[in-house]
Amino acid sequence: MERRYRTFFLYVEETPLLDMHPAVKLLALLTINLVAWLLEAPIPLLILLALLISSYVLLRVPLSRIRRFLLYALLVSQAVVVSYALGSRIPGHVVYAVLPWGAYISDMTLLYMATMIMRFASMLVGSTLLLSAMRDVDVIYGLLSFKVPYTAAFAFNLAFRFSSLFLDDYKMIRDAMILRGAKLDEGGILQRARNYSRMGIPLTVIALRRMNELSYVLEIKGLGFKGRRTHLHEFRWSARDICAVLLLLGSLAAVAALRLATDLLSFPGWPLA
């Protein structure tokens, strides 16, 4: 019988990521986002995105973990398109439209839109891949491995946990409003934003109530931030973990060196440079 584990995204089946050292998971999460931030050229970003998506198959993490973020990805992509279409002046070989306030849309404007969307998609897909196999204990013990104080590690873990709970609360309130007859997806962009803004009050009330309950739980359990602490779990470094760390650091160093020394990773990059 296949085991299932509780992670930040509910449950995940057996995957090699679960057996990795928590510090490696946090380093991988940081490395993926830094690499996506350093890359500016669309071709390297497209290769990175393809590698991350294929990692889901290789590491046996269901692609359905990304499905819950598709709406947010579409909203961010829409914001990127609107901002560059209405307020950018990126020179290009062909100008498709000139706006009255001086902004214009060129072929490079469209390419830059696609680049920014792929950068965000790479960060989203890579972060979801790691968080799908990351537990609360991984965050705390991973940060403690980097000599982060326990207070900061515990607060950081709570931030991750509350972000996951916030998504669940958002879906619950949205479904409740729809069942009561609310038309959240009707009208234009401003009308939809006004419709969804009505969810702010119940989300705030639920968050405050959960924070109050959490403070009582921590007080009852006698959790303190001073003094020497004992640990329930013990994570040991394996040869696979060390190889993963070397690969991550080497990849980050190579991307940073190429970004500084050449124009291959700068916009528009090869073969458009």
The whole-number mean of residue pLDDT values reads: 78
Low-confidence stretches: none
Q: Name the overall outline.
A: flat
> From the alpha-carbon coordinates, what is the Rg to the nearest angstrom?
22 Å
Count of DSSP-assigned helices: 9
Number of domain modules: 2
**Structural class by secondary-structure content:** mainly alpha
- Spatial strand arrangement across the major sheet: 1-2
**Amount of helix:** 55-70%
Number of strands: 4
Proportion of beta-strand residues:
5-15%
Order of helices and strands: EEHHHEEHHHHHH
Distance between the termini: 54 Å
User: The biggest beta sheet, please?
Assistant: 2 strands, antiparallel
Q: Can you tell me about this structure?
A:
There is one protein chain. This protein is mostly helical. The chain has two domains: 21-134 and 245-268, no CATH class; 148-225, no CATH class. Helices cover 63% and strands 5% of the residues. It has helices at residues 22-38, 42-58, 70-87, 107-131, 136-145, 150-179, 189-197, 200-221, 239-261, and strands spanning 4-7, 10-13, 95-98, 104-106. Strands 1-2 form a two-stranded antiparallel ribbon. The longest helix has 30 residues, at 150-179. It is flat.
Summary keywords:
2 domains, 63% helix, two-stranded antiparallel ribbon, single chain, mainly alpha, two-stranded antiparallel sheet, 5% strand
